[in-house]
Structures are given as structure tokens and as C-alpha cells.
Description:
Blueprint: E1 3-7, E2 10-12, E3 18-25, E4 32-39, E5 46-52, E6 57-60, E7 68-73, E8 78-83, E9 92-100, E10 117-118, E11 122-126
Parallel strand pairs: 2-11
Antiparallel strand pairs: 1-3, 3-8, 4-5, 4-9, 5-6, 7-8, 9-10, 9-11
Amino acid sequence: QLLVEESGGGLVQPGGSLRLACKVSGVNVEDYAIGWFRQAPGKKLEGVASLSGPRPTLNYAVPVKGRFTSDRDSAKNSVQLQMEDLKPEDTGLYFCAAGALRAGTLWFLFRPEDYTSWGQGTQVTVSS
Length: 128
């Protein structure tokens, strides 16, 4: 059974950094696309980053490009999201999700329906 679990959230001041981890269980993380999403109170779910394929191919949403980076640790079967220069608008519940690799999937669109397994989320709060 494919399971994903996030960790690493917390409270940080503006300009600070956090590193989130997404632990994948039950499957090889390299065989799935991993997406990062976030949801702020009263707002829609928003895609943040995605990794897919053997290289992997990385995609970042415009609001986080240049500040967030994601990488895969195959030895730990996990994916990390390094967040730098955090802003109050980055506050939200962060989710990772896994989706089966299928030809033609446009991972840069960050469509939630492309992912089948979701974690419970980890809270990130950016505030002074």
C-alpha cells in the first residue's frame, strides 16, 4: 500500500528557512511523481512543486520559483522541499502527494487529480 507522510513544518520568521520531508512507503519513490501542494485558510489548494521521472524533472509554481527547491533521496525513499526566504503568504498546510507516472501527464499544471495518495499535511507558519 502506497503511503506518504509529511514532516518538518513549524513556525518561522519572514526571511527564514524550513525543510519539509515527504516519506514514501510501500513503493519505490522513483516510480512515482511527487507533488507538493499547500492550502492557506480560506483559499484553494495550490500546487507548489513537482518531481517526476528518473532524472527527475522539476517544476515550481511561480510564487516560489527561486526560493523553493525539491530533491529526491532514493536511499531514504523520500522527497524534500527546501524553502528559503519565506514570506507570510507562504503560510499554509503543506501536503505531499504521489501519482503514478503516465505518459502525457503535464505535471507542471499541478492538478490534484493526477495524484492518488496524499499525506495529512504539515503546518508552515511564517510570522514575526
